[in-house]
Amino acid sequence: MSKTARDPYVHLARATLEDYLAKGEVIAPPADLPPEMTRRGGTFVSLKKRGKLRGCIGTFLPTEETVAHEIVANAIKAATEDPRFPPVEADELEEIDVSVDVLSPPEPCSEEELDPRLYGVIVESVWRRGLLLPDLEGVDTVSEQVRIARMKAGIGPREPVRLLRFTVERHVEHGD
Q1: Which residue has the higher pLDDT, 147 or 1?
Q2: Which residues contact 35 (CB under 8 A, 6 or more apart)?
Q3: How many angstroms separate the first and last alpha carbons of the chain?
Q4: Which of 86, 103, 120 is where one domain is finished?
């Protein structure tokens, strides 16, 4: 492994990817997890290759028993199930940087209560839902943030939507 993940969230995501892509095995989170990784919470795992998105999958509400289990599941999905990209190959891992976002519970809000640097947004219309993480490069305004989230969900610009916001605790990998 050429990258050393000092952050336990990123370390778990990278270890998951290495085992899964090399051996097809799903690892169990270690028993000696920091307490904050044993709580429940939604997570997103993002993969970037040479600075460009290579995969990103997550959950805004928990679906697994702990944040650690959520990271394992979402790391595998980010590498293998993001419909925008072909599956990641094991030999690509050296070029991929991993980040993990742990989401706060979403809360209803208005557009005036959004800030794309501070809050992620969820737009909902009947059964369609789009989510955009906060503090993304090139997303500088609330209108742009909401527009992209609508587009991801297939919601038209004039359709009424319910807005929810959330914050993230971002964990980023640094190559050595």
Answers
A1: 147
A2: none
A3: 11
A4: 103
